[in-house]
Protein: Sensor-like histidine kinase SenX3
Organism: Actinoallomurus vinaceus
Amino acid sequence: MEVVAGLAGAVGLVTGLVAGLAVRASERAQRPVDAPTPLSSLPSGVASVLSVLPSSAVVIDGDDRVLRASSAARAFGLVSGDRLLVDELIAMARLVRRDGEIREEEIEVVHGRREGRWFSVRVAPMGSHGLVLVLAEDLTEFRRVEAVRRDFVANVSHELKTPVGALSLLSETVEDAADDPEAVRRFAKRMQHESARLTNVIQDLITLTRLQGGEIVERPRTVNLDDVIHEAVDRCRLKAEPKEITLAIGGRDDLLAYGDEELLTTAVRNLIDNAIAYSPERTRVVVCTRLADENHVEISVTDQGIGIPEADLERIFERFYRVDPARSRQTGGTGLGLAIVKHVTTRHRGDVNVWSKEGSGSTFTIRLPLPSTSAPAKETPEQDTVREAP
Ligand code: ADP
């Protein structure tokens, strides 16, 4: 592992340097080996090497007193004053002092009720005065990312397995019903539904993977938001028609943003798609653009649908999070739509917010910075008009 290799190098570097300096210091000082090492015995060269190491570094003397600790070691609560606060580290240091062997471990450090942090630690002897060097690399983020990745892979496998399993069963059923054209037609329809679902999941996964590749939009351009919302509404029309849901466009038609038109259209389309999916028949979905302040524009999508329970509001932007999994599957949802919206807006240096009330409806609002290179749209009174989408 890179972290460990880095630590190994660092330990080698520091122990080599310190060993040389410590021998000279001992010759000068002529002190008994087990005498407590005063602070001044840590040569200044070592201190500057420790200060450039990326890991938390602590040097302790023969009595487990801290002679030197990097600010990271104090910030992580490994050290307070001249004491090492983690019992495992003290125990490792004593073993190292006894047999001179370098030790390596992954340990969890818990302070009070806060969630623990994980460290990859290496403890090594420094010279012959009982000095011990402790290097600790924070692994918490690395472990968190690993856990998210594992979760994601498990979720993806599940999302893909379900429609593939259904397709396999349906094909067997079709085979058995070969003499019944009506049944064949019915099962063929269900096969189309499952394969469409598979295509949606794969398409969303591809979009999400592309979005996670970088921080900001490649080759950004000035984008007319009116074009974005018209295109998004057009793409959702087929889904709205069977439920007789009216799609309306409102607000300003002269606002600009800076970014990727296709990605912004995908984000708005996902919001409209959801608004339709989670609304009863013969309701209304309104897509609106407005100037939020002198630096930001907003696109909002408002529905009169089922709404979202307050407890779920924080989590709906997570990948594969669904308030009601059965309903989401029934409407062809992949559980990735809002995660895509979140990534698209973040990439545009914007954000997305939600207001919702169960039984009344929801409003999702994408907020984007105005393009700095183009002249900001002039402040004019808000046009409250709502036009029916043509
Ligand atoms: P899905 O494909 O399941 O719709 P999303 O990521 O788009 O996945 O949305 C996550 C969840 O948030 C949905 O499963 C649904 O429970 C909830 N949700 C999203 N948009 C709305 C909305 N407009 N009204 C009610 N619930 C919504």
